[in-house]
Amino acid sequence: MAQMGRPRTFDRDHAVEQALHLFWQHGYDATSLAQLKARLGGGISAPSFYAAFGSKEALFDECVQRYLATFAQVTECLWDESLPPRQAIETALRQSARMQCEDGHPKGCMVSLSVMSAPSPENARVVDALTQSRAHTRAGILACVERGVSAGQLPGTIHAPAMATMFDSFLQGISILARDNTQHEVIDAAITQILLTWDNAASTEPSTYRNDEKGLIDLTGE
């Protein structure tokens, strides 16, 4: 009698990519084991699924790590101190918007969308890595604003956490716009508009002060 198992042509790496797209589109809870078995590798049995991936949770964890190592890298420029801080924020926003609107994968950002498709309380742990990723990006934006203040590119009167929250809120909102099929050109134009907040702040007050650990230093020497 022939034994049931994974198809001889089963490509595990491709199956993980297929699972990533399912989780990205539907979230953890809404992606059923039946959907996974039907879609992965052209259809596999439950024993084959568990042999290949261990569990749905383990597969989701693997998909999250793949997402963070690939698609989510569009915002890592926030930590590149060789870039001027405003440019780092602009690059992160524009790269993220472009990625979220691309064809070939679900629209939006899996990191942001995980909030709206949050798993049930008993499965809450599975999105910890995505929660940490959002915090990492938020901290990167704040670091850029603080660099802008320290470099005298923004006035010392700027409330850095508030400005950073504004940019972060816009970044998270791109996922909804992308899911609603808002054209990339429209989102890109909106990025130009929100960056005017930085430009207006920079021009409102002469940047004659610089922050250091002891407070504001008068750069005019007066």
Automatic annotation (TrEMBL):
PROSITE patterns: HTH_TETR_2. Keywords: DNA-binding, Transcription, Transcription regulation. InterPro entries: Homeodomain-like_sf, HTH_TetR, Tet_transcr_reg_TetR-rel_C_sf. Residues 34-53 bind DNA. Signal peptide: none annotated. GO terms for molecular function: DNA binding. Residues 9-71 form the HTH tetR-type domain. PANTHER family: HTH-TYPE TRANSCRIPTIONAL REGULATOR YJDC, TRANSCRIPTIONAL REGULATORY PROTEIN. This is TetR family transcriptional regulator. It comes from Pseudomonas frederiksbergensis.
